[in-house]
């Protein structure tokens, strides 16, 4: 298995785009994988190729950016009843978790990604999970991710590393990392082309990008932008 290659879980959102830029700065070859699972904000999938094309034109990144894979996981929608896979209100469920929580999503994504990485001879997966901006998603915790890495390594009988460069930084730190990695060019790509709004809104333009401005994803992104701007002054 190659330790100079990485497979990035790439949704077309802000976090996964920063993770892709992070991986491109560290590995000789980087591939991407995305998932279509009936997500309410499926517009993010349309942004993936746009972002990849623009990143490939930054510096010498193009020669390191490998192929992309988009997998269909319709079963995830059929077994879940969440605000990300249904036209339902975003609130908190009786479990105390937000209704945007899709049970098992990251566990499935990483498992499928590991299977593809195994076939490609890639030993490292990169994901944008973060517990600092913890939204109540238990599958975003570092303990969850690293325990899964151990299970996958055992199941494949080969070491698998899961890198989560955003795990312990907040959203302001994510904006700062993007600036450090790619300067104004990368910030411009994130603002104009990435998508995180749960409502799939690409009509309303804000300083921090497109979105409804009211869903939890927009509020978190806007708050991080504001804090990052304040830190720069």
Describe the structure.
- With 233 residues, this protein is an alpha/beta fold.
- The longest helix is centred in the C-terminal third of the chain and has 23 residues, at 171-193.
- It has helices spanning 14-24, 43-56, 74-78, 105-120, 142-156, 171-193, 216-232; strands spanning 2-9, 29-36, 65-72, 122-126, 161-163, 205-206, 209-210.
- It is built from seven helices and seven strands, in the order βαβαβααβαβαββα.
- The termini are far apart.
- The chain is globular.
- From the spread of the alpha carbons, the general shape counts as globular
Largest sheet: 5 strands, parallel
CATH class: Alpha Beta
Number of strands: 7
Round the Cα radius of gyration to an integer and report it: 17 Å
Overall mean pLDDT: 86
First and last CA, distance: 45 Å
Helix content: 40-55%
CATH superfamily, please?
HUPs
> CATH fold name, please?
Rossmann fold
What is the subunit arrangement here?
single chain
Query: What percent strand?
Result: 15-25%
- Which architecture would the CATH scheme give at its second level? 3-Layer(aba) Sandwich
Strand arrangement within the widest β-sheet reads 3-2-1-4-5
The assigned structural class equals: alpha/beta
Number of discrete helical segments: 7
> Which residue ranges are poorly predicted, with pLDDT under 50 across at least 5 consecutive positions?
82-86
User: How do the SSEs run, as a string of H and E?
Assistant: EHEHEHHEHEHEEH
Number of domains: 1
